[in-house]
């Protein structure tokens, strides 16, 4: 192994998992079964309070199922002696970055997880440089994380986990505090990471436009898995996604209007570039 990439993505299995925060209370996750293979890039959506964050906490053994099993590469999260093996494989980015950032400077924060992995100083320095550039954190390295804006904290949290190169990257609404430009930067990182066959990605989002970042979409509603398919299938036809309160991605709505105006736009969930192409082609068509 050259140390620069995770050697292979993790396999995740939820086997009839039920979990309630108060034992005997209403389950936050109910009889959930799921298998995610190495290298898959999965986006999880669903209404607020439906159990999405709880699924990621179960994955990272922050909470343990009352019924059923969560397995990461075959390791049961209930096996306390293997906790480190699970945490080493799963890099979790919390919904609220305040719960994640513990160090006195951004640079120390990014180094912290890598030090726990026992990486050499030269490798740590190299990776800090890489993620700093990738996430535009250069000016923040010596700042205390708790004094940063919400969006800056979110970028630092993403950088710290990316630098550890976990086999499974689990992100809980990583763009919720970012502006449009910041979101687009994280999107390009998620696309690149999602394309790596060596990485399993689970990405919880509230933004329909982010569903197309994954190759597989899951919908969790009322603690249950109610949809498992491709992003295009989720938004195909009228009403299916709306049943769970999900709007169509904005690019689909724009594509619909463009089609109505006679432009030819690809079916499915078009990218912004697809829309620009369609408009450019249409304009050329009229000009000739
Ligand atoms: N620490 C906790 N103690 C008690 N109940 C909790 C706790 N965290 C979450 N819950 C409850 O468990 C259920 C699922 O919560 P969860 O945070 O997993 O939802 P979510 O889908 O991530 O919501 P959101 O989109 O708002 O982040 C909700 O009913 C919530 O109120
Ligand atoms: Mg949540």
Describe, in plain words, how this protein is organized in 3D:
- The chain is of the alpha/beta class and 288 residues long.
- It has 2 domains: 12-233, Rossmann fold (3-Layer(aba) Sandwich), CATH 3.40.50.300; 249-288, no CATH class.
- The protein is built from 9 helices and 10 strands.
- The longest helix has 16 residues, at 180-195.
- The protein is globular.
- The model is unreliable at 1-6 (pLDDT under 50).
- Bound molecules: adenosine-5'-triphosphate and magnesium ion (MG).
Summed up, what is this model?
With 288 residues, the chain is α/β, with parallel strands linked by helices. 35% of the residues lie in helices and 19% in strands.
Strand order of the largest sheet: 6-7-8-3-9-10
**How much strand content do the residues show?**
15-25%
Class inferred from helices and paired strands: alpha/beta
The separation of the N and C termini measures 56 Å
Based on Cα principal axes, name the global outline.
globular
Q: CATH topology of the largest domain, anyone?
A: Rossmann fold
Proportion of helical residues? 25-40%
Question: Which cofactor or ligand species appear?
Answer: adenosine-5'-triphosphate, magnesium ion
The CATH superfamily of the largest domain appears as P-loop containing nucleotide triphosphate hydrolases
H and E order: EEEHEEHEHHHEHEEEHHH
Tally of DSSP helical segments: 9
Rg, Cα atoms, Å: 20 Å
The strand count comes to 10
The total number of structural domains is 2
* Major beta sheet summary: 6 strands, mixed
Average predicted local confidence, pLDDT: 91
Query: What's the CATH first level of the largest domain?
Result: Alpha Beta
Unreliable segments of 5+ consecutive residues:
1-6
CATH architecture descriptor of the largest domain: 3-Layer(aba) Sandwich
